[in-house]
Fold this sequence. Notes:
Blueprint: H1 3-15, H2 24-39, E1 43-49, E2 55-60, H3 63-75, H4 79-86, E3 90-94, H5 103-111, E4 116-124, E5 127-136, H6 144-161, H7 164-168, H8 174-198, H9 202-215, H10 220-229
Antiparallel strand pairs: 1-2, 1-5, 3-4, 4-5
Amino acid sequence: MSREQRLAQVFVELADTLVDDFDVIDLLHTLCERSVELLQADAAGLILADQRSVLHVMASTSEEAKLLELFVLQNDEGPCLDCYSTGEQMANIDLDEVKERWPRFRAATLAVGYRSTHALPLRLRGQIIGVLNLFCVERSTLSAADVDLGQALCDIATVGLLQERTVRRGEVLAEQLQSALNSRIMLEQAKGVLSERAGIGVDDAFALMRAHARRNHLQLGAVAVAIIDGTITAAELGAAGN
Length: 242
């Protein structure tokens, strides 16, 4: 398959969210995964603002990326926060060059093996609702075309979150993001529960949960609740014996 064909597939996949009752958490994880794939990064994480403009980690491609995002929010330091406050892209950040600007972020990121990073805003007509962060093991340089592609992926995901008809009805973003945040909290709990019950890593636990949700046309939040209360077992997810 050519790169052009793959790009077309990805944009169709993200545009598929422009329907009623789409799964916000799944959309955000898809955005992270496809950005890593198409922009040759090693990991990605995504933060979103709730109705009080408080930032939360909502998706990541690995546990390390999630912990880095949490570190950024807890220490109030890092390129993604600058990206969120200004709405400007922050690409091609070599960690060897930002020791004075973000010392704690730099130390934490280098400690888990990343050498460069990029931050792209989720924005629409001046409204900034979050940031996509890409982490690279090697010193990575995105071309202008790469940055444009990454921004386009973020933009279409943002449109999915800020569907025009919802804004017109005056329901704004707050309710949808709060619902997504609640689902995310349940999801983190369920990942831990499944990880312990099945004896697998949390990333593998999430992969099983997501596959089950897609296979059975369920919301991730519903799957998380069912795992926590025991309605869905590890064996049903194919985790038994791993």
